[in-house]
Amino acid sequence: MTAEEVAAFFTGSGGDYLFARWRRPIVPVVFGIDDATLATIKGAVEAVVALAGHRIGETDPEQGANLLVFFVRDWKELAGVAGLDGLVEGFGPLLARLEAEGANQYRHFRFEAGGAIRACIAFVRMDASLAELPAETVALGLATQVILAWSDRAFRGRSPLATAAGTVILRPEVAAVIRAAYDPVLPEAAGDASHALRLAARIG
Questions:
Q1: Domain containing 59: what range?
Q2: Same domain, yes or no, for 41 and 123?
Q3: Is the CB of residue 51 less than 8 Å from the CB of residue 181?
Q4: pLDDT above 80: residue 188
Q5: Domain match, 84 and 180 both
Q6: Model confidence pLDDT, tens digit, residues 60-80
Q7: Strands, E, within 26-85: which ranges?
Q8: What's the predicted TM-score (pTM) here?
């Protein structure tokens, strides 16, 4: 991949480059699904974390859990969840915007003082399009999008997933970016597009 192709994954609609990965072990908690689907979601998170060479934890000493995933049928269901307005700034207007836009997913990242990912709160509304997909596909897509703070247009119009021999997998270039992003030599966060040159060099 070229540096320009890599940079596109972390360059937002406003033109700013922002890269961030997790520093602390990821501790996931999932709400709104049955036990079988819970195992599928956690299995996908573990697989993507292993790809990155990062770690899953039993508990976050400061936060308890740091990856909170909420599955709902309607955005209004989240309005009754205590404490979310304290975790996500502007939570009420956000719900109204998600409903107006017909969105089916949203991720809110919180960051360490140095810019690394501290926590992620992910919302998934199981609309008709997502309900048609196998649980494994939804799980892998979710796990991919929380392992890094991708830009808002990283996967616009093209999924991070592909199909090979009837099995859903990560697109090879996306998997390569994730592996390179967690190289311990690289910084946990970056705000300059020159960082993409270092990522591309490791992918190459």
A1: 23-128
A2: yes
A3: no
A4: yes
A5: no
A6: 999 999 999 999 999 999 998
A7: 28-31, 67-72
A8: 0.95
